[in-house]
Amino acid sequence: MWEGSEEGMILRVRNAVIIGVAGAAFCAGAFGQSAQQMAEQASRQAAPAATTTSDQQPSSDQLAKLFEVMRIKQQMQSMKTMIPGMVQQQIQAAMKQTEEGMPAESRPTPEQREKMQAIMNKYVAKSIELYPADEMLTDMTAIYQKHLSKDDVEGLITFYGSSAGQHLLDAQPVIAQEYMPLVMGKVGQRSQAMTKEMVKEMAEAVPTSKPAQPKPAAKPGAKTGTAKPPTK
């Protein structure tokens, strides 16, 4: 019904870009945590986290030092160099899937594909800048101040300044390089199947109604109305 249409391709491309941008933000935060933090978070999931009182909130300078020792900004930059290639793969897969559902005469020529690819590369690069690193750090600062105390931040600074913390940070680019293609591949495959299932269910719920066929026009000179029986 909608598969193979231009709208379908746009939706798939948009989803690929969103996944890429979200992936960069996710990795910057997820890999910037120690195993101890992850365990603490798991234990707190049953109850909402308490908000830190104003007198115990860390200062912006404290958090800037924490983000520096955690190499958050460098991690974000690293993700930004990795994400475009993965997003472009998702876009190419979306284009291929769309073209397969199109009549041969409607498919783009090699020259048109090249132009489309150049345009998409341009907008993928733009999408990575939708949420700049400095703005992300500003937002993170406000959230960290809400949920972490001064002592928490000092403890984290100590950890990430240690040899174990630095080793974790050194390993993060390699971990991300192995993990992100796994995420993109699984999400891409599973979202395709889910999208097909959703489209099928929507088509069944809202069937396309066929337009009423127009009645043939009466022939010139033809009599209308009910024919009278012949008289004897």
Model description:
This protein has 232 residues and is mostly helical. It has one domain. The chain is 71% helix and 0% strand. The chain is built from 8 helices and no strands. Helix 1 packs antiparallel against helix 4, helix 3 packs parallel to helix 7 and helix 4 packs parallel to helix 8. The longest helix has 43 residues. The N and C termini lie far apart (60 Å). The N terminus is likely disordered.
Low-confidence stretches: 1-5, 24-40
Fraction in beta strands: under 5%
* Number of domain units: 1
**What are the secondary-structure elements, in order, as H or E?**
HHHHHHHH
Helix content: over 70%
Q: Using DSSP, what is the number of strands?
A: 0
N-C termini distance: 60 Å
Global mean pLDDT: 75
Report the sheet with the most strands, covering strand number, pairing sense and barrel closure: none
- What overall geometry do the principal axes of the alpha carbons give? elongated
Which radius of gyration do the C-alpha atoms yield?
29 Å
**Structural class of the helix and strand makeup?**
mainly alpha
Count of alpha and pi helical runs? 8
List the helices and strands and how they pair.
Layout: H1 6-30, H2 35-44, H3 60-70, H4 72-100, H5 110-128, H6 133-147, H7 150-161, H8 163-205
Helix pairs in contact: 1-4, 1-8, 3-6, 3-7, 4-5, 4-8
Defining key terms:
71% helix; 0% strand; single chain; mainly alpha
Task: Compose a concise summary of this entry.
The chain is mainly alpha-helical and 232 residues long. It contains 8 helices and no strands.
